[in-house]
Design goal:
The chain is an alpha/beta fold. Helix content is 44%, strand content 20%.
């Protein structure tokens, strides 16, 4: 039975319909992932479902007695509040009822108050708060003001969960959380007994938690059973069918337009019904909302850096008596794609600054390569002028952008990042969180660079833009340093991962997060001399076999590799790069052409007259047949390899 139902909802900002007669129902126990392009209205929809906003039209029905808790993308807290006082805000009604009972006001019906308090389990609300804090690993006396973004997100979750709601609405719950916290949150949500709707672009998180995916696409809510991997397969077929139907419609409309413009004789005999149908076709085409195009991402590349970007020898750094980096030795080469993984506060930013020479080590040496031109994503967020227009923010004082030796008008450049020309003069503050991130990427990529430093670039980006960003970074000839908690994104981009292993120790693992988890499990199994060590070692070798780079040397460490004891979420196979996907698409055609050529040669060689007429060419024809045999074997093996991936 549906716990809440949204019927024929309409919501528009300006001329853009965010909800266009959209309908949706949430069943008891469901965990729904709400996805869609940035700026399509997902957060607005969640606020409508939470009862915080109203649609322009339509109806929201919530089953009687259902309590709904909403955790916004950026939660707000009272000044001077502690963790305990903030979490207890989730029980404000219960607290108020008990306060009224304890005050014994004249004329108050104490029996009715007692019944209400008992029905809400309000006599021991302090104990409920303490239990929630223990479960979410929070210290009650800590002031909110001094907490990290990830800890604040935990506090907001605790404030929502303490009331034991029937429906939990989460807007980007993984933002600011490190990998350990994301794994913890996955376990928490899977164990939650109520219903959940969550907005997220973390594909691994959606795969691990969701029972259904709902996509907000051009004002309509479309439902797909299963997790995100199942959605991808269904969506691909759906888009192909839609494109085919639109092509047929456009062809029919074009034919009718040609007919209506024929000569005088044709117009005299034309049918009224056919003219009416043409008008109807025109109206249907006018209201049709086509799929939003993909962003066109391109990096303005600087001259190549030296072959070696940085060499670090036994580097250490401490702050206030706390060691952040201890005895790190490594070499970063041009073209490396390096991911940095660790808990919040582990020192990822400090290590990056040491590698790039922006921070001097307490001990050890750092040697930088030549001709480094570094572009930072994190620094740009601090200088986001909310009152500037999009065009001025991208190219202040000029209408043109220099990009890899060519000039491009700022309007066209903004369109490449899916910002319509009509919005170019709108202030930045009108953009959604994901659109602001996309705008920051547009400005970053307009700066010539051969080293990119991206600190959490994936926050709020929609899944289509994430896919394109993966392809761009994979094809970027320079060096990339990537700090992210998006496991799928790291797996698809990086060639090696630097992992914080506690007490300032950093270790490099070849590959992405999944490779790190496999290799670290192998190390733990070997250290414990478990029977399964050999099998895990074999899996680790297979996972690392695709990358033959010389590993970055790390300082000797006698302690076994230690990683969080969190369960590993099963992930789908790593996706192909853009070049590999293009190669896979072209292989059937190449194979077919070779087979056709070979069949024609064999047909000619089977003719006895060929030896009389073209005896001089027969040897060359036989050689070509053998060459095609070898080429076909190579291409077929390559096709099988790419197809399996």
């Amino acid at each position: 039975m549906a716990v809440l139902t949204l019927s024929q909802a309409q919501l528009a900002f300006g001329h853009v319909a965010l909800l266009d007669h959209a309908s949706f129902s949430l069943e008891a126990g469901e965990r729904v992932g709400l996805i869609g392009r940035n700026g399509t209205g997902k957060s607005s929809l969640l606020k409508i479902l939470a009862g915080l906003e109203r649609p322009d039209d339509g109806q929201l029905q919530v089953q009687s007695g259902i309590e709904v808790a909403y955790v916004p993308q950026e939660p707000s807290f009272a000044e001077g509040a502690t963790v305990f006082s903030t979490v207890s805000e989730g029980l404000e009604e219960v607290k108020a009822l008990r306060a009224r009972f304890e005050a014994h006001a004249d004329g108050e019906d104490l029996d009715a108050l007692m019944t209400q308090i008992e029905s809400r389990n309000g006599w021991n609300w302090e104990q409920r708060v303490e239990e929630s804090l223990q479960r979410l690993r929070l210290s009650p006396e800590l002031p909110i003001a001094g907490l990290s973004g990830g800890t604040k997100k935990r506090v907001a979750l605790a404030r929502a969960l303490v009331a034991s709601p029937h429906v939990l609405l989460l807007d980007e719950p993984t933002n600011h959380l490190d990998l350990d916290a994301i794994t913890w949150l996955e376990e928490l949500l899977v164990a939650f007994k109520g219903s959940i709707i969550m907005i997220s672009h973390d594909r691994a998180f959606l795969d691990a938690t969701c029972t259904r995916i709902v996509e907000l696409d051009r004002g309509i809510l479309r439902s797909y059973p299963g997790n995100f991997a199942a959605y991808q397969a269904l969506k691909e077929r759906e888009l192909a069918d839609e494109a085919l139907a639109n092509a047929r419609f456009d062809k029919l409309l074009a034919q009718e337009e040609v007919w209506i413009r024929k000569g005088v004789e044709a117009r005299r005999t034309r049918s009224v019904a056919r003219v009416k149908r043409l008008h109807e076709l025109r109206e249907q085409r006018a209201v049709r909302r086509d799929v939003v195009g993909k962003a066109k991402l391109e990096v303005s590349q600087a001259d190549r850096s030296g072959k070696i970007v940085a060499e670090l020898d036994n580097v250490s750094k401490a702050f206030g008596g706390r060691t952040v980096v201890q005895g790190f030795t490594g070499t970063i080469m041009r073209g490396d794609k390096v991911g940095l993984v660790g808990p919040n506060g582990a020192g990822k930013t400090t290590l990056l600054k040491l590698i790039l020479g922006e921070l001097q080590p307490d001990s050890g040496t750092v040697r930088l390569g030549s001709n480094l031109q570094v572009a930072y994503f994190d620094q740009m967020r601090d200088h986001l002028d909310l009152d500037a227009t999009l065009a001025d923010f991208i190219s202040p004082g000029s209408e043109w952008i220099e990009l890899n030796g060519s000039r491009k008008h700022v309007m066209g450049y903004l369109q490449d990042f899916l910002f319509a020309p009509a919005r170019a003069n709108s202030p930045v503050r009108t953009l959604s969180g994901g659109e602001r991130n996309r705008l920051l990427l547009a400005r970053l990529f307009a700066k010539p660079a051969n080293v990119l430093v991206l600190d959490e670039p994936t926050n709020d980006l929609d899944i289509e833009t994430l896919d394109l960003l993966e392809e761009l970074l994979g094809d970027f000839p320079g060096t990339v340093f990537l700090v992210s908690h998006d496991r799928r994104f790291l797996d698809n981009v990086v060639t090696s991962t630097l992992v914080a292993e506690g007490e300032g120790h950093w270790r490099e693992y070849e590959g992405g997060v999944e490779d790190w988890l496999i290799q670290s499990r192998r190390a733990r199994a070997l250290a414990a001399n478990k029977p399964g060590a050999a099998a895990i070692a074999s899996a680790s070798k297979q996972a690392a076999g695709a990358d033959t780079r010389t590993p970055v040397a790390v300082a000797a460490d006698t302690a076994p590799a230690s990683t969080p004891a969190a369960p590993v979420v099963a992930q789908p196979k790593r996706k192909l790069s853009y070049k590999e996907q293009r190669e896979l698409d072209e292989l059937p055609g190449r194979i077919e052409a070779l087979e056709t050529e070979q069949a024609e040669l064999n047909k000619q060689l089977a003719d006895p007259d060929i030896y009389r007429k073209e005896g001089a060419n027969v040897a060359a024809m036989h050689a070509r047949v053998e060459e095609i045999d070898e080429l076909l074997m190579t291409l077929l093996e390559r096709w099988e390899t790419l197809g399996q991936r």
